[in-house]
Amino acid sequence: MSNPSDSWIFTATCPSLLGTVDVVTRFMAESHNYINEIHSFDDHVQSQFFIRIEFIPEKDDFSPEQFNGDFSSRAAPFEMNWALTPPWKKERVAILVSKFDHCLNDLLFRYRTGQLNIEVPVIISNHPDLEHLAQWHGIPYYHLPITAETKAQQEAQILALLDEYHIDLVVLARYMQVLSPEMCSALDGKAINIHHSLLPGFKGARPYHQAWEKGVKMVGATAHYVNNDLDEGPIITQGIQPVNHTDYPQSLISKGQDIERITLFNAVRYHIEKRVFLSGNRTVVFSN
Amino acid sequence: MSNPSDSWIFTATCPSLLGTVDVVTRFMAESHNYINEIHSFDDHVQSQFFIRIEFIPEKDDFSPEQFNGDFSSRAAPFEMNWALTPPWKKERVAILVSKFDHCLNDLLFRYRTGQLNIEVPVIISNHPDLEHLAQWHGIPYYHLPITAETKAQQEAQILALLDEYHIDLVVLARYMQVLSPEMCSALDGKAINIHHSLLPGFKGARPYHQAWEKGVKMVGATAHYVNNDLDEGPIITQGIQPVNHTDYPQSLISKGQDIERITLFNAVRYHIEKRVFLSGNRTVVFSN
Amino acid sequence: MSNPSDSWIFTATCPSLLGTVDVVTRFMAESHNYINEIHSFDDHVQSQFFIRIEFIPEKDDFSPEQFNGDFSSRAAPFEMNWALTPPWKKERVAILVSKFDHCLNDLLFRYRTGQLNIEVPVIISNHPDLEHLAQWHGIPYYHLPITAETKAQQEAQILALLDEYHIDLVVLARYMQVLSPEMCSALDGKAINIHHSLLPGFKGARPYHQAWEKGVKMVGATAHYVNNDLDEGPIITQGIQPVNHTDYPQSLISKGQDIERITLFNAVRYHIEKRVFLSGNRTVVFSN
Amino acid sequence: MSNPSDSWIFTATCPSLLGTVDVVTRFMAESHNYINEIHSFDDHVQSQFFIRIEFIPEKDDFSPEQFNGDFSSRAAPFEMNWALTPPWKKERVAILVSKFDHCLNDLLFRYRTGQLNIEVPVIISNHPDLEHLAQWHGIPYYHLPITAETKAQQEAQILALLDEYHIDLVVLARYMQVLSPEMCSALDGKAINIHHSLLPGFKGARPYHQAWEKGVKMVGATAHYVNNDLDEGPIITQGIQPVNHTDYPQSLISKGQDIERITLFNAVRYHIEKRVFLSGNRTVVFSN
């Protein structure tokens, strides 16, 4: 048996049709790729098929170019979109923050210790506060202040940095800024935000204060893709924390930190491990 | 030591002031009542004090009338409202249902086995479906159908039954009817509803369908007091259930049943054990 | 799209080898069976492969006999053991109980309302207490008292009943008797027990008392297959319940009931939906 | 109303007796100390009383010496042991580690951001690996290697450091060394260990490997006081993490990290907030 950490990941989606699994798994067998794990799902409402496979090539000269070339004629009749991710791939992640550091500290810890298999080439913030944390990890930190007047310009600077650093994924780790529609469009599907409530409850600003006003007995966090409707992007995962009458907004904020950072970590991990598929405004997540 | 199940329960609330605890506990000691457990809470925002005490009288001739009489002069300067609940008190609970039986079955099971220390003198429904369950438990079942035209009349019939059976608490165990403002007023503070979502998310009808549309990764249930604003009454307790992309509305409904019935049970238990206090539109719950 | 409740279930296991998925999915496609859902797992330590597929035949004249006949020559080189389960299959479940009724009540409720897709042709107990519950559900109830002297004979009676009623699965719903090694062997792999602790903690008798002595802050329940080593059979699923210093053994028993019955229900559901595979003394569970 | 963060904490324990609450709360009222929160518990088995009060002095010249002097004559008849903790008190915590840094990183983050109201004057390890983390936080780091031969000497060095730095509490943040009985005695009641299993399951070495062997579906962590019986000290709190068949020992180790660090954090917080009382080999924890 091979080591599962040598696994390539194959992901695909197409309209539901007889043979969608077979076309993939037959090709895997014929091209001598050993399947470690397979997840598939058929959305009966959308009539859409999703599949994720972890496989290990048994031939030493495995070539992704040849795989893609050979598979394309088989995929065509199914109108299948697919992607191959090599085991050594590390997504290049830009982290955007404001002043809160619990999510940033958590992501950097998991990055530093290898729990999160990513590169973090750049951290961007509208405040200077967290530069020391970036420095200690040897990561460039850009302080790009923002005002109503400079918003367009600041967002352009961010987009330029994402381009310069060849960023695959943007993580809004409590960035606390409402992105412009243009920025949302630019980041569509490649940015993950953590919102500190169980959406759709308590959208918008100060959700813990809203939660306290309402007297809820659970607070939570929602990690979702950014789209152009604030706090309405497709949800990847959610976490909860029981609270009680002794909590005031300040202690809700404090109690919520752990669930925020764990929820954000899970979402980033699912994303980089290619476990998340968009299905309309919903997600298919082959979690483990 | 005495048996804790012999405990009387003392509950009180008043504006925050120095000595609010002392006035109670001193009286307890002087009147030879042994305190088993004490919970207190000061709401700093409302400046309101809440206390719950379980105690065991050490004198055989303990008289609640004398307790109340003696305590009243001490309570007066604090404008304290208090109540005594004897260990043998069983609240008389009316259960209102429609066609779903998971909450009813659960409450009746706990009632029958003594886990829920209540009387259930009457079950009322707008449908005939669950009469067999009531019959098996030997509980009168009233089938009061409802239409838009007969709503006022039907609600009057219900109120008459609550009166006839000397009901202390009404439990809406998935009753599925929107109560009229008049009915809500009549039940204010003495009716508990279970809503099958994590309020304030997914108010109103078909919350599991709403949850599926939104693509959330958690569903939940909220037990709250009825007031005159639908699904907006003070929350007593909430429960959650993780879900995923393989769930359709039908399986959400099925998966949610356990959390609904446990959440409703907890709320009823907290209420009858005098653990719940209203504090504006929020609750103080001395849970255990 | 077809209705997923029309799904057949295909399960198989064999040694790990290139092509284990392909041999199944290719056959599915060629024989015009639409795959709704697929789970597979390769145990790298045991080098064993497990697969579970839900599929819908697209041909009206689907014949399981023909499926099995045609597939056998393909399965042979892989030494694959497989099984087909039709959508209309209801496992015949015998429930064994003593005096505690929370698990029995829960299973019967879910059976009666269709949440658990089983038949319950017989209930067997060493006490007469729960006969009324069986009667109300119209299920034969056998009271087979047991003493040290009559144990062998009583167990023989049980086995005879299991045979007479064509039982597929035995559920020990807090049966509270230690089965003889002979009985364990006879039930090997076809009986599920609920133990009221988080195994391997607190094996044996009175686990809640043991838990209280130890001062743990979590109690739990473990559903496992019966084998010939008491409380050591392969674990299917576990549940937990936080507790605290105010709990005495009696309240642990009461608090544990919900987690016991939900854990047992989940295990029975996983079993009848063919989601559980034995892998040595461990289980593979394709839960949903 | 005063700010709750100005609260003094009063804790006491004594044999159960009529008036144990009154003697405290009457004194509080008479000495003009405003009670924010009160928890009490009577252990019916041990006949022992426990109480924790948060209070705010209403007089500017509040003197703990005078409080203690005045209260002593009242406490005497009850054989009550009590302690006063001022709001500005920060416990001096020494952290002991080996090579794993997830717990250390977590504690230091919460210390640095004020979530954990402690001083960390010293970090001690038998390995040099984590010195950089200590350095970045400006905390002295002592690398004291240990072998079977040098164990007694190394432990003496540790004890000398605890003395030198006036340490109130020792936190074994995955220190991975079995302490000698002498060391255990020296630390009795003032050291907290995190064990990476749900005790009493999987005591001793490599609990995640044990858990994998057993095939459990939940792993957990247990924070407990150190006493002279390895992994048997009084449990403060426990946490759990569901796992499944796809987990190998390595992924259990990884998945368990979050629950280990949160469980350890909670235990430390409960301890420094004076929420934990010893009651034989069990604990009373007035958590919030």
UniProtKB/TrEMBL annotation, chains A, B, C, D:
The protein's Enzyme Commission number: 3.5.1.10
Domain of life: Bacteria
Pathway(s) this gene product operates in, as recorded in its UniProt entry: Purine metabolism; IMP biosynthesis via de novo pathway; formate from 10-formyl-5,6,7,8-tetrahydrofolate: step 1/1
Principal EC category: hydrolase
Membrane-spanning intervals of the chain: none
GO biological process: 'de novo' IMP biosynthetic process; one-carbon metabolic process
Residues of the active site: 231
Pfam families referenced in this protein's UniProt entry, alphabetically: Formyl_trans_N
Sorted UniProt keywords: Hydrolase, One-carbon metabolism, Purine biosynthesis
MF-aspect GO terms: formyltetrahydrofolate deformylase activity
Residue span, Formyl transferase N-terminal domain: 92-267
SUPFAM superfamilies: ACT-like, Formyltransferase
Reaction it catalyzes: (6R)-10-formyltetrahydrofolate + H2O = (6S)-5,6,7,8-tetrahydrofolate + formate + H(+)
HAMAP family given in the database record: PurU (MF_01927)
Function: Catalyzes the hydrolysis of 10-formyltetrahydrofolate (formyl-FH4) to formate and tetrahydrofolate (FH4).
Family statement drawn from the similarity comment of this UniProt entry: Belongs to the PurU family.
NCBIfam families according to UniProt: PRK06027.1, PurU
Protein name: Formyltetrahydrofolate deformylase
Organism of origin: Vibrio albus
